[in-house]
Design a protein that fits this description.
There is one protein chain. The chain is an alpha/beta fold and 445 residues long. It folds into two domains: 145 residues, Aspartate Aminotransferase, domain 1, CATH 3.90.1150.10; 276 residues, Aspartate Aminotransferase, domain 2. It is 38% helix and 15% strand. The protein has 15 helices and 15 strands. A seven-stranded mixed β-sheet has the order 4-10-9-8-7-5-6, with helices on both faces. A four-stranded mixed β-sheet has the order 1-2-3-13. The relative contact order is 0.16. The protein binds pyridoxal-5'-phosphate (PLP). Pyridoxal-5'-phosphate (PLP) binds next to helix 5.
Length: 445
Amino acid sequence: MTTPSLDALWMPFTANRAFKRAPRLLVSAHGMHYRDADGRSVLDATSGLWCVNAGHTRAPIVEAIQRTAATLDYAPGFSMGHPAAFELAERLAGIAPGPLDRVFFTNSGSEAVDTALKIVLAYHAARGDSARRRFVGRVRGYHGVGFGGISVGGIENNRRPFASHLLPFTDAQLPATHGLAENLFSRGQPVHGAHLADALEAIVAEHGGETIAAVIVEPMAGSAGVLVPPVGYLERLRALCDRHGILLVFDEVITGFGRLGAAFGAQRFGVTPDLLTIAKGVTNGAVPMGAVLMPRALHETVLDAATGGIEFFHGYTYSGHPLACAAALATLDVYRDEQLFERAAMLAPLWETAVHALRGAPHVTDIRNLGLVAGIELAARPGAAGARGAAVMAECFANGLLVRVTGDIVALSPPLIVTEEQIHEIVTGVRHALQRVADAEVAAR
Ligand SMILES: Cc1ncc(COP(=O)(O)O)c(C=O)c1O
């Protein structure tokens, strides 16, 4: 196949110059595998980018998109509607935790987060409590790349270049739930660290609980390198938010749709947030879509406070796009019919044993897992943070395995259809890559 010129495209979150020197181009996908431009099969250990939970190019999803593209290519969502958007909202409400049965559609996780922050402010304003305008995020939190998302996010490289333009009232952050030496090589939720939620009390003491609108966290941080919440941590955060009248937002863009062995992390952990953001797995990654879920009471408070006409001045041209709705409805059918959330829960113990067998492999300093996710942390090369992780990723790909790295952390999150054999293939591939990278470093000395 002829390769197009790579010059014109500015690639997202990519070392562009390095990529264009050694491009990795994917040209097709099916089930658990990609095929690259050289015709090689690549086992997908990352569900694309944490989104293809049902595996690639699943026929029911493809057909639903094709049918809809030929029937209703687009319908405006402002003061107009189409049936599938309403049907999808109802279906999502049906699998959402507890009372979260109202849905606002967006096109990405970043938009879902920005929308959730606006809904929080609208809700407090509707109750006459506009003094609540502070958002509390968490160190190493990832909430996308909108100005709202980076303001409440805690990944320094994403914030620093825009530091002077972050949203006001977003400077208080909870500490990351990670880094306690006692939790190294934890299996499932680490035992230590529930007390880290108490940092919210210090923020309340400094700023006043009555000024805090919401706390936003990922129930399990994915993008920052798989940071699993300690036992009791989310429960304590929930209790503290309740004590001070603060809304709790779970960003479930990664943890939604079976990744942790339940529909949402909220159900996996038994902690219900006030708002919940989704994206990625809602359409199996096939069409961009995101959403915010919230309880009826919150939604009605905002509607009731409106003086007439439009109640909430917010929305996107493509909110509830027909192709996204069709993809999502078909995706939810696949998840249900193949019991993929249950399958993730069933495979989780085997997955845990398999990934922890990498303990002792070259440079591995920590391994952690939950559901069908694992983070394998490597010691950084002196003076070259991220270089070893990048080398391992490149080595895996060269040998037909797609993994994701964040700095020097290898993150694994295969589609929920992964087989036991493929789990072993993934772990073996990572082990070999770690060894080859280590050998190459020794040879280069
Ligand atoms: C927790 C979380 N929130 C938000 C986002 C942003 O989603 P998107 O890239 O669709 O804007 C991501 C993406 O990885 C995410 O993991």
